[in-house]
Amino acid sequence: MTNELKTLLDQAADRPATFTPDVADLVAAARHRTRVRRIVISAATAATAATAVIAVLLVGHLGTTRPAPQPATTAQPKMVTDLCAKSDDFFRTANDDAWRQQVVSSWTDKVVEVTDADGAMTVRRSPDGSQYAYCVAGVPMLGRPLGGFGATLLNVGIVTRPYQIQRYWSMGCGDDPVDRDNRTMPCTGVRYSYAGRVPEGVTRIAFSGLGQHANATIKDGYWVHRVYTDDIRTGNVDPIYITMYDRSGKQVFKERY
Amino acid sequence: MRPETEQDYVEFVTHQANALCRTAYLLCGDWRRAEDATQEALIRLYRVWGRIQRKGAVGAYARKVVVSTTLDALRRKSSQEIVGGDDYFAHETDPADPLGVLENRLVITKALAELPPRQRACVVLRYFDELSVEETAAALDCRPGTVKSQTLRALEKLRTHPALAELSDLAVKG
């Protein structure tokens, strides 16, 4: 064995803190995933069986009756402009138009929301109160609603870390008055929308960057905030930092996002 | 899962999570990613725990899942996912570290970062986890011959790395 290499690798992987995940959370997440997997498999099996039965019935039906010609109609799905996602199921929900449509139309319980001239960032609660979705919506421009056009889950994949944060970005014009119905040039600004669950013990969440300093809006264990830039390229000059403080004013988290 | 079987799983997680996380860190160069990959691997392990435990290959399987989860996450980096602030193999200075240790740490993590993921995995599994060629092949789901050739190439690259060139045994062993 290459002893020096082993020593170097050992040193590189040393750190004062030992990684000890919350086993109860892990087991709960694993049980949940196992349940979901079973349900999906059962549903797929049932769907396959149902399809087979319907196919058999249809074949029999087509053999005996000749259907009258129907006018061609194509159901147009309603465009979903609000971008919603759950932090614990980000990639599936963010890419599921039907789910987002359902959230926008029926999850009317708003836990916390922040609005500005360009739109809103909202944490919505499901009708049964068990689930939460982070949604960004845009104010229409030239009659076209501006939803979010990008989203990301920061610290993706985290099971137990309390600082999981969701970020969206969407077109924006800024806070200056703009005639959105007669605007000839599209706005070139960007609104960054952030949301997350308030970690235990945290009482203040501060944002700094892009020349702005403000606290996030906190309510019922969730927080939201929006930051605007006229030019996305200036983001690298004054990066956005999120800092969290506990009740005594001690900083417990700081990260560049 | 039966309570006693689940208790075995809990004990395994309690005792092995940190070791698996260190392996994951050497593969991706980012502690947060490593923690995520380890947790993801442990969750996947839960589903097959009973079967794997009966086979008596829990450790090997867990390491295999950690490696694949970590390498998968590296491949997904080009998606819309962004991890704030930290790039892979971004090195944070630790004021508590003695200077020499810190320097060595930077050297090896930089050198590892320059290796392709599979070669990096071969080096980490062979020389950090001290697995045999066969065990490494099982963890990477490839043939032993592939492990040998990948390891050889990796060591050749490490040998030419300016900061590692002085390692005597690295220069003569493959």
Automatic annotation (TrEMBL), chain A:
Looking at the UniProt entry, the stretches that span the membrane are 39-62
Q: Which keywords belong to this entry? A: Membrane, Transmembrane, Transmembrane helix
Listed name of the protein = Uncharacterized protein
TrEMBL record, chain B:
Q: Tell me, what is an example of a GO biological process annotation in this record? A: DNA-templated transcription initiation
Q: Does the keyword Cell cycle apply?
A: no
Task: Name the source's superkingdom.
Answer: Bacteria
The record's section on SUPFAM superfamilies has: Sigma2 domain of RNA polymerase sigma factors, Sigma3 and sigma4 domains of RNA polymerase sigma factors
* InterPro entries with a match to the protein in the record: RNA_pol_sigma-70-like (IPR039425), RNA_pol_sigma-70_dom (IPR014284), RNA_pol_sigma-E_actinobac (IPR014325), RNA_pol_sigma70_r2 (IPR007627), RNA_pol_sigma70_r4_t2 (IPR013249), RNA_pol_sigma_r2 (IPR013325), RNA_pol_sigma_r3/r4-like (IPR013324), WH-like_DNA-bd_sf (IPR036388)
Per UniProt, residues of the RNA polymerase sigma factor 70 region 4 type domain are: 107-158
Annotated signal peptide: none
- Kindly indicate whether the keyword Lipid metabolism belongs to this entry: no
Q: What GO molecular function terms would the record report?
A: DNA binding; sigma factor activity
Q: Which keywords fit this entry according to its UniProt record? A: DNA-binding, Sigma factor, Transcription, Transcription regulation
Q: RNA polymerase sigma-70 region domain: which residues?
A: 13-78
Any one Pfam family match given in the protein's UniProt record, by short name: Sigma70_r4_2
Entries under PANTHER family matching the protein: ECF RNA POLYMERASE SIGMA FACTOR SIGM, RNA POLYMERASE ECF-TYPE SIGMA FACTO
Record-stated family: Belongs to the sigma-70 factor family. ECF subfamily.
Q: What is this protein called in UniProt?
A: RNA polymerase sigma-70 factor (Sigma-E family)
Organism expressing this protein natively: Kribbella pratensis
Taxonomic placement:
Bacteria, Bacillati, Actinomycetota, Actinomycetes, Propionibacteriales
